[in-house]
Write a structure and sequence with these properties.
The chain is an alpha+beta fold and 158 residues long. It is built from two helices and eleven strands, in the order H-H-E-E-E-E-E-E-E-E-E-E-E. It has a single domain, classed as Jelly Rolls (Sandwich). The strands form three sheets. Strands 1, 2, 4, 9, 10 and 11 form a six-stranded antiparallel sheet that branches. A three-stranded antiparallel sheet has the order 3-7-6, with no helix packed on it. Strands 5-8 form a two-stranded antiparallel ribbon. It is globular.
């Protein structure tokens, strides 16, 4: 009986150490992102909300009300899923007037020579580490999407 008690204690401790599961219905997810506070200094019109518990793969809900700065991340890949709205998305090419804002993070004013796509509800994109990307235009009031940040397994070159 004594060993059974230790097993029960070990299981309870293991369960209590597991991170919580995050679950939102589709409507709850949209409401959360629509109500996201402005979080990014120097990037007006960018509102974001971390949706995941502490993790090495952050999940971020983003609401944009106007185009942002071009960017490039050397240390992680962005996985995007569009929830609502329409935007022009430019990838590849070169960041114009890029400045390193923190290690591995380049921000600029535009992209030169990239590929342009029109994003809409349900679209999905994987932007590998070190690939410039930019939302150059928002159609309508706002653009809502989710980004999962996946750490790069190797140091990328800029």
């Amino acid at each position: 009986m004594h060993s059974l008690a230790w097993i029960v204690v070990a299981v309870v401790e293991a369960v209590s150490m597991q991170p919580p599961v995050t679950f939102l219905t589709g409507a709850e997810l949209l409401r959360a992102i629509e109500g996201a506070p402005e979080e990014t200094p120097g990037q007006p019109g960018l509102y974001s909300l971390r949706l995941s518990a502490t993790s090495e793969y952050p999940v971020i809900g983003i609401r944009r009300t106007r185009p942002g700065r071009s960017e490039l991340h050397t240390n992680f890949t962005d996985v995007w899923y569009v929830l609502q709205g329409h935007a022009t998305f430019v990838t590849g090419g070169a960041v114009v007037d890029g400045v390193e804002t923190q290690p591995g993070e380049i921000r600029g004013h535009a992209i030169s020579g990239g590929d342009t796509r029109h994003l809409k509800n349900g679209d999905f994109a994987v932007v590998p580490a070190s690939v410039p990307h930019w939302i150059s235009e928002i159609e309508g009031k706002e653009f809502l999407y989710i980004v999962v940040k996946v750490p790069s397994t190797t140091q990328q070159r800029r």
